[in-house]
Specification:
By secondary structure, this protein is an alpha+beta fold. Among the domains are: about 30 residues; about 190 residues, Orthogonal Bundle (Penicillin binding protein transpeptidase fold), CATH 1.10.3810; about 40 residues, no CATH class. About 40% of the residues lie in helices and about 15% in strands. Strand 14 and strand 15 form a beta hairpin.
């Protein structure tokens, strides 16, 4: 009988050892567990300051163990697995104790999962309590212990545990509950955070402050009992009244939400992945946003847009020398309407289209002194129909007016006659030269902006003028770095192309400064008269209106800003304060943007000459008009020769 029992015992031992050997060999052959953990994607401005954190279902920042407070590690080990550094994934003594107490209580009153087992469960498995899951957990835990050292396992564990309220990992939890990084956590803060994962719905201080504090105190006691802290540290930490940060829902909305969303959509295109994948893969997306410019734009819109209206806005600022988009606002409020009116909407441009026409006119021989009759006129079209455009408020000079004055007061009759001279098909070509890719009709009315174009495209085309005729390609992303620190996308600036002849481009720019110069007032006021007095820098620009659209686009040598306002449903803009909003937003914002910058003028190329000229007659300054002349630029050889005599 004894011999049989001994044989059975030996067979059991051999079987156990053989099974263990097989499991060990299997685990080695399988190699380290392969997994990919969701990690937050972070968006930065041009100064590499964080402007947004994007995540999928899980909010998580992966941080290395060296970037986690030692109090955190000690607290979790004391609370969850005080033998962590001594076992091989399974704490036999703890398992035996748990079995004993659970049998006595006839219920599961004590757990025995180690940190390694919890880590395996967090990454690979569900939390279902089945034998199949337990076996899988054990096998994965063994592979983790074979192929990772203890610090790697602890780092993974601290970055994957759930802290409630959508926060995964110690860094996300630290920022959510205490608005600080994980390496700055104090002893009592670390103890509180280590209390939450046992049951986030029960121990979150936002759900039950009392439960959280009681478990925090228990963990502090465990830290003292396991010699992680001294008695004095234990007593002091217990007495501290912890204050929890406000929840995310109570915080101020992010700056630049339209910008961020557009940049992230662009990033997903560049990488060829979905937005969901981008948001949870731990990328660092470095954008071109100037945080101060964006803040000033949003502040200005909030202050200057009428509050008692459903009218919307689209505004964007570009650095014309580089193409960087430094600020963008696609509406009054992102939370109420995420539709981006800068990039997604196309609206009729009104008179902001005229610079394309007048560039073509300069190429075809016009000068700032070229005169055309400004009077009520009807035009017979090729199909026999009569086209009768009108000036604003039906105001006409009823005499010849110069190009200088026609541009400044936005004379529609002058524009249609110019388009008739240039040819509508050549106006289309001119617009394409500026970078406008929309389908444009070759008709006389195109001169008055009957085409629909996006705010971004209009800002790009005006930036070509601001860049002295060189091409500009707006962009929002400088580089994208993956979670391993590899640069997976880097913006490569293309060599600029000369799109506009530099002399013509400068003459046109100087003509566009006229909208702010009251010396060009006459039969109509210059279109920028309502904002001219508040401008302290040199700007060129053009406003534009249709029954349902209001535009202001202008630039300095440093920045181009385009602003559109109107109703999403294309209803007519009737109130005066609504019609003035685009100009007022543009002027206030541009002055704020340029406040700390030195006044800079547009550079005149060597091929032009500047003369004092009477803008009414287009003739050189003389005794009869010296009180109304203005510095005007001409391409050399085209300047006027006559002196004004009246």
């Amino acid at each position: 009988m004894i011999r049989k029992l001994l044989r059975l015992f030996l067979l059991t031992v051999v079987f156990g050892l053989s099974t263990g050997a097989v499991i060990l060999v299997y685990s080695v052959i399988q190699g380290p567990p392969k997994y990919e953990i969701a990690d937050n994607t972070i968006v930065y401005d041009q100064n590499e300051d964080v402007i947004s954190v994007e995540h999928g279902i899980q909010n998580r920042f992966w941080v290395e163990l060296d970037d986690i407070s030692p109090y955190v590690m000690d607290a979790f080990i004391a609370a969850e697995d005080d033998n962590f550094y001594n076992h091989f994934g399974f704490d036999i003594k703890r398992i035996a104790s748990a079995v004993y107490h659970n049998i006595l209580a006839m219920d599961k009153v004590q757990g025995a999962s180690t940190i390694t087992q919890q880590y395996a469960r967090n990454i690979f498995l569900t939390h279902q309590k089945t034998w199949e899951r337990k076996i899988q957990e054990a096998l994965i835990s063994l592979r983790l212990e074979i192929f990772q050292d203890k610090d790697e396992i602890l780092e993974g564990y601290l970055n994957t545990i759930y802290f409630g309220h959508g926060q995964y990992g110690i860094q996300a939890a630290s920022q959510f509950y205490f608005e600080k990084d994980a390496d700055d956590l104090t002893l009592e803060e670390a103890a509180l955070l280590s209390a939450i994962p046992k049951g986030p719905s029960v121990y979150s201080p936002l759900n039950s402050y009392e439960n959280a504090m009681n478990r925090k105190d228990w963990i502090l006691r465990r830290m003292y009992e396991t010699d992680k802290i001294t008695a004095s540290s234990y007593q002091q930490a217990k007495r501290i009244d912890l204050r929890i940060a406000v929840t995310a829902s109570e915080k101020e909305p992010e700056i630049g939400q339209y910008f961020t969303e557009t940049a992230l959509n662009r990033a997903s295109e560049l990488l060829g992945i979905s937005r969901q994948e981008l948001d949870s893969k731990g990328y660092d997306v470095y954008t071109t946003m100037d945080h101060q410019a964006q803040e000033k734009l949003e502040q200005t819109i909030q202050e200057e847009m009428p509050a008692d209206t459903e009218m919307q806005i689209g505004a964007v600022t570009i650095d014309p020398t580089s193409g960087r988009v430094v600020a963008m606002q696609g509406g009054k409020n992102y939370e109420q309407s995420p539709y981006n009116r800068v990039t997604q909407a196309k609206r009729m441009t009104g008179s902001t289209f005229k610079p394309f026409l007048y560039y073509a006119a300069l190429v075809y021989g016009f000068t700032p002194s070229t005169q055309l009759e400004s009077r009520e006129t009807s035009f017979t079209l090729e199909n026999g129909k009569v086209y009768s455009p009108a000036n604003y408020s039906d105001s006409y000079a009823d005499r010849p007016v110069t190009l200088s004055q026609a541009v400044a007061v936005s004379d529609n009759i002058y524009a249609i006659k110019t388009n008739q001279f240039v040819g509508p098909e050549n106006l289309v070509d001119a617009a394409k030269t500026f970078g406008i890719e929309a389908e444009l009709p070759s008709v006389l009315s195109l001169a008055l902006g009957t085409a629909s174009i996006s705010v971004m495209d209009m800002a790009e085309s005006y930036s070509v003028l601001a860049n002295e005729g060189w091409s500009v390609k707006p962009y929002l992303i400088e580089k994208i770095v993956d979670r391993d620190g590899n640069i997976v996308y880097q913006h490569q600036a293309k060599t600029p192309e000369r799109l506009l002849e530099e002399n013509h481009a400068f003459v046109l720019t100087h003509l566009l400064t006229g909208m702010f110069d009251k010396r060009l007032n006459g039969y109509m006021y210059v279109t920028g008269s309502s904002i001219a007095d508040q401008l302290t820098h040199e700007y060129a620009g053009k406003s534009g209106t249709t029954p349902s659209d209001s535009w202001m686009i202008g630039y300095s040598p440093q920045y181009t800003t385009a602003v559109w306002t109107g109703f999403d449903d294309n209803r007519e803009i009737k109130r005066v304060q609504d019609s003035r909003a685009a100009k007022q937003v543009w002027a206030t914002y541009m002055e704020r943007l340029h406040k700390e910058m030195p006044v800079q003028t547009f550079n005149a190329p060597t091929g032009v000459v500047g003369l004092q000229v009477d803008p009414i007659t287009g003739k050189l300054e003389g005794p009869a008009c010296e009180d109304r002349t203005r510095l005007t630029y001409y391409i050399k050889g085209t300047e006027p020769k006559e002196v004004c005599t009246q």
